[in-house]
């Protein structure tokens, strides 16, 4: 049964619900890992999308994104200045020097897991590596702050504070989110302190934290395909995401995987 926080309407998960969310999260992480392993110069984003469908079928789950508000892909694959929601295409070929953002959301036994990472292909410029490292670090800083009793706005504000030190900007048009049986539940989890977030974290809350960080302007536009978000200045963008559970002992990453970049310590 779903407990719910009276003040905010945010679900507080327990028992079998948590088991279901953990299973979905671990499965989403496995599919992301398998999908990332295919990334190389010369492969098309359409091939990666099709392979992801097979990985999901093999893992006994399905895409949480396909048909969501009409989304046509199994996963999201966004290159370089594409921020999020890129759609795999047979004629879109990955090249050396690209950064590839892959976002995988699955439904398993009715529960959702959602996670994303950025992947460099071959040699990338040092400032782009720094963008990836700062973004991944901001995700883990935010996770470590996601303690029971903490104000959610502090978690959100930590993302912008960290990446600002490097001169990078956070995207404000898209946010992280609560999730459970649906991909997007309360609360919204922006990557900055909007000043409007009243939520205090409690054990049983499940949220996806997903920093989207730009090298230049924070402004993004959506392409004519009605999905792909791109930076307005054409500069690169980075994205990392985990689903986490707030427990009495602190945050638990429900989508565990190895980090891409070294922690900043
Ligand atoms: N991780 C993203 C999100 O939670 C991916 C959604 S893609 C969509 O918003 F197609 F489902 F919208
Ligand atoms: Co998400």
Structural overview:
49% of the residues are buried. It is globular, with a radius of gyration of 17 Å. The strands form 5 sheets. It has a 5-stranded antiparallel β-sheet with strand order 10-9-11-16-17. Strand 6 and strand 7 form a beta hairpin. The model has no long low-confidence stretch (mean pLDDT 96). By secondary structure, the chain is α+β, with helices and mostly antiparallel strands. Helix 1 (16-36) runs antiparallel to helix 2. The termini are far apart. It has a single domain (9-253), classed as Creatine Amidinohydrolase (Alpha-Beta Complex). The longest helix has 21 residues, at 16-36. It has 4 helices and 17 strands. 26% of the residues lie in helices and 26% in strands. Residues 65, 68, 71, 76, 85, 103, 105, 114, 116, 177, 183, 208, 210, 241 line the site of 2-amino-4-trifluoromethylsulfanyl-butyric acid. Cobalt (II) ion is lined by residues 114, 177, 208, 210, 241.
Derived from helix and strand composition plus strand pairing, the structural class reads alpha+beta
> What is the domain tally?
1
Residue windows where pLDDT falls under 50 for at least 5 positions: none
- From the 3D coordinates, which CATH architecture would you assign? Alpha-Beta Complex
Count of individual beta strands: 17
Top CATH class = Alpha Beta
Shape: globular
State which percent range the strand residues make up.
25-35%
Elements, N to C (H/E): EEHHEEEEEHHEEEEEEEEEE
Main sheet: which strands, in order across?
10-9-11-16-17
Major pleated sheet: 5 strands, antiparallel
Mean model confidence by pLDDT: 96
Q: Percent of residues in helical segments?
A: 25-40%
CATH domain topology: Creatine Amidinohydrolase
- Attached small molecules: 2-amino-4-trifluoromethylsulfanyl-butyric acid, cobalt (II) ion
Kindly report the name of the CATH homologous superfamily. Creatinase/methionine aminopeptidase superfamily
Number of DSSP helical runs: 4
């Amino acid at each position: 049964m779903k407990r719910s926080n009276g003040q905010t309407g945010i679900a507080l998960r327990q028992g079998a619900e948590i088991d279901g969310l953990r299973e979905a999260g671990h499965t989403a992480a496995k599919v992301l890992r398998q999908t990332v392993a295919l990334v190389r110069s010369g492969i098309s984003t359409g091939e990666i999308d099709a392979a992801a469908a097979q990985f999901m079928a093999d893992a006994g789950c399905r895409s949480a994104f396909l048909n969501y508000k009409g989304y046509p892909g199994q996963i999201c694959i966004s290159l370089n200045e594409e921020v999020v929601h890129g759609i795999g295409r047979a004629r879109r070929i990955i090249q050396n020097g690209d950064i590839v953002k892959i976002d995988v959301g699955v439904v398993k036994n009715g529960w959702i897991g959602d996670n994303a990472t950025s992947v460099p292909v071959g040699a990338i410029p040092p400032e782009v590596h720094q963008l990836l490292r700062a973004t991944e670090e901001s995700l883990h800083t935010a996770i470590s702050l996601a303690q029971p009793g903490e104000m959610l706005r502090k978690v959100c504000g930590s993302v912008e504070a960290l990446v600002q030190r490097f001169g990078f900007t956070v995207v404000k048009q898209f946010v992280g989110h609560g999730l459970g049986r649906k991909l997007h539940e309360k609360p919204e989890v922006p990557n900055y302190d909007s000043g409007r977030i009243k939520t205090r974290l409690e054990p049983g809350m499940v949220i996806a934290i997903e920093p989207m960080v730009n090298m230049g302007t924070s402004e993004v536009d959506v392409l004519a395909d009605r999905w792909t978000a791109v930076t307005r200045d054409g500069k690169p963008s980075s994205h990392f995401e985990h689903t986490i559970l707030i427990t009495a002992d602190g945050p638990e990453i429900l989508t565990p995987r190895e980090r891409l970049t070294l922690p900043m310590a």
